[in-house]
Amino acid sequence: MRGDIFASGTVLACALAWCSSAFALNPELAISQYAHTSWTIRDGFSKSTITSIAQTPDGYLWLGTELGLLRFDGVRALPWQPPSGQQLPSNNVRSLLVARDGATWIGTDEGLVRWKDGKLTRHELFAGRYVGDLVEDREGSIWATTHFNSRWTLCEIRPARAECHGDDGGAGAGAIRVYEDRTGHLWVGTVGRGNGLWRWKPGARKFYPMPQQANGIQGLSEDGDGALLISLAGGIGRFVDGKTAIAYPFPTSSRQLEYPQQLRDRDGGVWLGSAAGGGLLHFHAGMVDAFAASDGLSADRVYTLFEDREGNIWVATANGLDRFRDVAVATYAAKQGLSNAGVASVLASPDGSIWTGTNDRLNRWTHGRATTYPEPAAIGGIQSIFQDSLGRVWVSTIRETGYLENGRFVSIMALGSGQIRSIVEDGDGNVWIANQDFGLLRVSTRSGDIDHSSWADLKHNVAASAMTANRSLSGVWLGFPQGGVIHFSGGQVRASYGIAEGLGNGTVRGLRLDHDGTVWAATDGGLSRLKDGRVATLTSKNGLPCDAAQWIIDDDAGGVWVAMRCGLARIPQAEIDAWSAAVQKDSTAAPSVTVTVFESDDGFRVSPNASYYGSPVAKSSDGKLWFVGEATLRVVDPRRLPVNSLPPPVHIEQVIADRRPYDLAVGELQLPALTRDLQIDYTALSFVAPEKNRFRIRLDGHDRDWQDVGNRRQAFYNDLTPGSYRFRVMASNNSGVWNEVGAVVDFSIAPAYYQTTWFLALSASTVLALVWGAHRLRLRIVERHQAEITALNESLMKAQEQERTRIAGELHDGVIQQISALSLVLGTAKRQPEADAKKTIADVQRKLIEVGTEVRQLSHGLHPPILQEAGLPQALHAYCEEFRRTSGIPVSCEADDDARDLSRGTALALFRILQEALGNAAKHAHATRITVRLTRSADTVSLDVSDDGAGFAPSRLGTSGGLGLIMMRERATQLNGTFDFESAPGRGTIIRVVIPFR
Known about the structure:
Blueprint: H1 13-16, E1 35-40, E2 50-55, E3 61-65, E4 68-72, E5 77-80, E6 93-98, E7 104-108, E8 111-116, E9 119-122, E10 130-136, E11 142-148, E12 151-157, E13 162-165, E14 175-180, E15 186-190, E16 196-201, E17 206-209, E18 220-222, E19 228-232, E20 235-240, E21 243-249, E22 261-264, E23 270-274, E24 279-284, E25 287-291, E26 302-307, E27 313-317, E28 320-325, E29 329-332, E30 343-348, E31 354-358, E32 362-366, E33 369-373, E34 385-387, E35 393-396, E36 401-405, E37 408-413, E38 420-425, E39 430-435, E40 439-444, E41 450-453, E42 466-468, E43 476-479, E44 485-489, E45 492-497, E46 508-513, E47 519-523, E48 526-531, E49 534-538, E50 549-554, E51 559-564, E52 567-572, H2 573-585, E53 596-598, E54 617-619, E55 625-629, E56 632-636, E57 650-657, E58 660-662, E59 669-671, E60 678-684, E61 694-700, E62 707-710, E63 714-717, E64 723-732, E65 738-749, H3 757-830, H4 834-862, H5 865-870, H6 872-887, E66 891-895, H7 904-923, E67 930-936, E68 940-947, H8 963-974, E69 978-983, E70 989-996
Parallel strand pairs: 59-65, 66-67
Antiparallel strand pairs: 1-28, 2-3, 3-4, 4-5, 6-7, 7-8, 8-9, 10-11, 11-12, 12-13, 14-15, 15-16, 16-17, 18-19, 19-20, 20-21, 22-23, 23-24, 24-25, 26-27, 27-28, 29-56, 30-31, 31-32, 32-33, 34-35, 35-36, 36-37, 38-39, 39-40, 40-41, 42-43, 43-44, 44-45, 46-47, 47-48, 48-49, 50-51, 51-52, 52-53, ...
């Protein structure tokens, strides 16, 4: 947070100057008609009573309390602490003054200090003194009223010296209030025995005694003529030429109270506050009104009054803080003189008066005063009111309908029941009355004849919800709750429009007929225009804030007003004309219009599904628009719309990185490496409607464009890389006026060691070296693998060659020799007798079958089908079983099923080793029992073959009958495996082969 919190912000000079604002209070309104907001101690706004208010040049409001200072931006009130090593004389702040040089003077119950440029300066003259009032005169001197040793005195601070007056009981004794008027006269109000008023300067000091006041002469201001206004018992006294007379008496209920707090606002209204529990009084436009806790004030005891640069009035009370501001739409109720706050209809008369139908009586508002008419007796309330071309005011109630003429009510019909929805007059002098139950009535103003048409005659089964007519055109236009608009004239429906023709859907809530025959229908589906048989509807797609419209009226300032569920919309007449011309030319055109919307915080309120009597809106002769809103009377003056022309000062309040706040006064912030969570708090100081302030933010170095963040006052970032950044924020006030200069803060995030350039360069070099090394290693592995593949291929070729040699030997030693022997036998058979030859041929045939069987066995042994189909475990079981059957030697065979996934080449090699081992056990060892075991571990496969045969001495390996063992070893070696055996004469043989699992 900034060390100098009173420092000037980065905003335009005009925004910071105490210049006038177009957004000021309407002096015609009472306090209750202004927008009012409270912040209370009970709700946690502050911890103690607020005793003083000031606004510094940067735009903040400063609130002095009994427990210290608060800085307020309209949303948050934050406690202020002086810099380390500095402190206030006391935390009980009693007065505040912002001088023209930007310094802030802080008066406490123990002394006075001056705060400027981050430094607190104490004035020893005030040590231990209670500082009550602070004023700067036009010469730059600071005047203070102080209390010390049971005395009030007046003290003056000049650049060269400071002195107090009245400690000796002379001039200045009892000084309790100081005020400088517009002509430069300094006035001092006193308390005690010397109760009165000093004219301190210019010229010789002069004292004017005043009526005794318990709290002395405190409330001082001046009127528009420059006369001094003084709060006295019973009223406001006007001081002229040394004489005082009560010019503005208090209300009867307030005449026993004193109102020492006085403020004259920039529009001439005078505000008074009572610390004794009298609440607020407001003198304006020749009237006075009161506002107390019963009306919504935070408390009845008022301690100080303040007007900020935007024209808001601030009231500090015993329980909190209140703000009053102007509104676009004012409300008139019983406090303003109406007989009842429940208003159902409104009528503007050409003589400038406003007629209202309330829940009990007919009221007439003229020159700020309301007159209540006893007739007609309004049981159930006044319904519709209307003034005809003869000046008669028509009035309907639930019992009867008639008109006022010369102050007397003339009843023309007693309907007994039914609501009179609307009364209008057409160009033929006919008054039309829409009765919910009986239908449409036509009353001739010339003859008094009454005609009746049922709603069925108008081709509708429900009563009309809206009706309008024009005194230059015949007939009436009616709208209905189920949708649809008709023109009824001469006893016939002349035209009818509905959704199919383009009319807005839903209930027709309001109708207006222009002099050129254009009909405007306010419907739930938009604002529809009917002209020359064509219908076009203006909706939210064209710029309206929503679709549901309730009524329409034009003003005298070039605008068209449309009441909608979501607000009161004002559209420039030129925009309406352009839209009308476009849709008249092309029914598919959809041009947009510019709309200004007034919402609930601007004073506009209507019932979402309102069903009105007569016309719900009227324009008075002074151009004001009066309308019914939530059963109350409301008014908007199009020529005096409150516009806040001051762009708001914008401030960046604090930067928090990883939960640590940083001092913004040091210039560019240096944030540490690896900053993850960054929070930036900012604000805009417009107090009219802070909730309507809008913000745009941009982080240069991160964002490509401005971001519209609405009214959010914080920005969060968690993905920022090391580097330099500039955060910028701009804001608008409630009227959409932008401060585009805004505020900025520069910061940088340091890189971690591994984010530095040298580390990145080193890392890149290391990565390149690793990649090169990996590439070279890969080449070596590929080369080695290629060599292994070559060796394996050579080994496979050698094994294939050995297999061919073995098969050739088997064929030569067995099959070929048998076939040669059989051919000799067949030669012998040629020479034998027939009987012997047949027997020989039969033997040859049998021998050939045996030779075929032997050849098939050799073929199956070369590529056993079961090995390819079922895998090595099943092939081992099958071969062991076949070997047992053909050799007669028992074989115990165990094979781990997990070895089934062994590669085909490896499985075939192990199968050959098994064949060789079993063959050796049968042919050479003459075994009587053989055991075979195939097992698999995580990365190896083992084959064990043991027998109980004759065995042999390992030293004789290769000398006789040992070629089979050598071939088994070569097969195992070709598979990168191991081959081991154990044998001894008479003790059998154990063969073990272990190869890597592939």
